[in-house]
Write a structure and sequence with these properties.
This protein is an alpha/beta fold. Helix content is 31%, strand content 28%.
């Protein structure tokens, strides 16, 4: 057990929270955000969208069902309870840590898991007060120190602690960082049956559940690095493209934006999820902005403007699309957030391209919007039918143009038409 060290949390406005450290003892800094979900901390902590952030969980008791084995995989060979191969957050803030875990799948405690992955945590924090500060003032940078007891600096003055933590905060500007090299695959990876049609997944920080759902709808997945060019994507002859979720400011992903712009111009069937939603909007000429405190939780209501039906969604993002900037881009709003009316989904008016800000694959969260993957498959199938029909028509026209009998018939019709025109002129 690694629980018991002295710990301190400082946020950008100068507020200090005293707590107890657990996990790996360290000094770290990051953007402090909160998530309102009640369950699913293993999926949440391994979501690459949290890269560079210190996560505050608002549900008070965390760790009671422990941590399952990453070796527990599904029929596709993907871990059932983890969204990537490691913890992605910089640090964890909770109120009550359960040092005893009880569940049939548990192989270690939350405390042990964080230590193994070298991630510091701090508990006994008034997470309600911290969340209120973030909601009122907006997300802020923060720093955690859990070195105090082990390093023998417990006697340091409050001024020394503030100076150390303040220095950490100033040296870690979240919005300017490009986290893509940390979260994206560095080499192409293939999943599924080679006999199936291919979908390319542009990995800007993908969750395993996105891969799982692409496989579920019947495709093979080729996962490519975030900075793959349009030509590199199309080398795999994909039936469609998925641009994944991921961390940070979407405007930093310039290469992915360029690739997305070429996909739009070429009318390649494309689905954007979360960060991919923002990248597609930027590629089309729209603008994005930073939300005050973001949307992170499993109960965010959104309305499908096509059907006027509300859905409960799982979300994790800190940036959004400026609605008015969509004018003239070819995109229109598909989903809208019930709480603050932010853009939660877009669809192209004439091309097979859609995107959602929420997570249709959930994990954790409700699976109400799993149909987004099925709709994307329908768009791909419809696009392929229309493309096949166009090619057939073109081929028939070409064959007719090269057929001597058709040419002779056309010449006769032209001659007859000319004779009729002469006769009509003579009558006049």
């Amino acid at each position: 057990m690694y629980f018991g060290d002295q710990g301190k949390l400082m946020i950008e406005d100068g507020s200090i929270f005293d707590g107890i450290g657990f996990g790996y003892p360290a000094d770290i800094a990051g953007e402090v955000v909160f998530n309102t979900g009640m369950v699913g901390y293993t999926e949440t902590l391994t979501d690459p969208s949290y890269r560079g952030q210190i996560l505050c969980l608002t549900y008070p008791l965390i760790g009671n069902y422990g941590v399952p084995s990453i070796e527990d995989t599904d029929e596709f060979g993907l871990p059932r309870f983890f969204e990537s191969d490691r913890i992605q957050i910089r640090g964890l803030i909770i109120q009550d840590l359960s040092v005893v875990a009880s569940h049939w799948s548990c192989v270690k405690t939350l405390d042990e898991w964080l230590y193994d992955q070298r991630i510091p945590g701090i508990c006994n924090i008034d997470t309600r007060e911290l969340t209120k500060k973030l909601r009122i003032n907006g997300v802020m940078m923060g720093a955690i120190s859990t070195w105090a007891v082990q390093e023998g600096v417990a006697a340091n003055s409050e001024i020394d602690v503030r100076k150390r933590l303040s220095g950490l905060i100033k040296n870690q500007p979240y919005g300017q960082q490009n986290f893509m090299p940390e979260v994206s695959t560095s080499i192409p990876r293939v999943y599924g049956d080679k006999a199936r049609d291919t979908l390319v997944l542009l990995d800007t920080g993908t969750k395993n559940s996105i891969i799982r759902n692409i496989l579920r709808i019947g495709f093979r997945v080729v996962r490519l690095p975030w900075d793959s060019s349009f030509e590199e994507v199309m080398l795999h002859k994909p039936k469609g493209i998925v641009i994944s979720n991921g961390p940070g400011d979407p405007k930093v992903c310039k290469t992915a934006i360029k690739t997305a712009g070429e996909l739009i111009r070429a009318s390649v069937p494309t689905l954007g999820i979360c960060l991919g939603h923002q990248i597609l909007a930027l590629a089309a000429g729209a603008d994005t902005y930073k939300l005050k405190f973001g949307h992170r939780g499993q109960n965010k209501p959104c309305i499908d403007l096509r059907s006027d039906r509300a859905y409960i969604t799982s979300q994790n993002h800190g940036y959004g699309i400026e609605p008015k900037s969509l004018n003239g881009t070819g995109f229109k709003v598909w989903f809208s957030n019930v709480d603050d009316h932010t853009v939660e989904g877009i669809e192209h008016e004439s091309k097979p391209i859609i995107a959602v800000q929420f997570h249709p694959e959930a994990s954790p969260g409700p699976y109400d919007c799993i149909f987004v993957f099925d709709r994307f498959k329908e768009l791909i199938d419809d696009f392929n039918r229309r493309s096949s029909s166009a090619r057939t028509t073109e081929s028939n026209n070409e064959n007719n143009n090269n057929n001597p009998k058709v040419k002779m018939s056309a010449a006769r019709k032209k001659k007859t038409s000319k004779e009729e025109e002469i006769c009509q002129n003579m009558k006049q």
